[in-house]
# Entry
Amino acid sequence: DIQMTQSPSSLSASVGDRVTITCRASQSINNYLNWYQQKPGKAPKLLISAASSLQSGAPSRFSGSGSGTDFTLTISSLQPEDFATYYCQQSFSTLTFGGGTKVEIK
Amino acid sequence: EVQLLESGGGLVQPGGSLRLSCAASGFTFSSYAMSWVRQAPGKGLEWVSAIGGSGVSTYYGDSVKGRFTISRDNSKNTLYLQMISLRAEDTAVYYCAKLSRRGIVSGAFDVWGQGTMVTVSS
# Structure
């Protein structure tokens, strides 16, 4: 099975900061990588699919990059509504999530 | 509007059984693979099971293989998860989710239900 490792597991940042979250696959998954945002008590929401394709309605401050085994989610200027937990997920072979990254207010 | 609505969660004793349902609307249900994803209290997301659009192809995570069965009724636009031999570690919110790619079990989870809580405890 393909393992997905996210780092860091949590981070503290201020409004306006640039934030980067990484996700590493245990083997190459080409660009079969998706990113989700989850707020407490709510279902996850798809942000980015196929490593870099921003979903309709998602703010342009979110971007994704990478291919193969290493991927990045970047928030260019953190906004108050972005404080949440972010998950990566691969769909190259079955479907696996990373452990999550909690973005907290500094 | 595309919607998924789960039901069937509740409190069950260890070793017991439960069947979850997910009613879909707003899209051609039979054209898309569907999946169950769970989240234990305070923990991350765990993929549980997926099923192809026709219902023939099914897939399971290692932690539920042999105990859970995914199925669908395309005439009723409904997804199911039959759970048996439940354990305390199965306690979680169970989400129903639609996969984004037509016809195959792949892609992103582009639509999610609100979740249903399953608690396994004596």
Observations:
- The mean pLDDT of chain B is 97.
- The radius of gyration of chain B is 13 Å.
- The CA atoms of residues 2 and 26 of chain B lie 4 Å apart.
- The interface with chain A takes residues 35, 37, 44-47, 50, 59, 61-62, 95, 100, 105-110, 112-115 of chain B (CB under 8 Å).
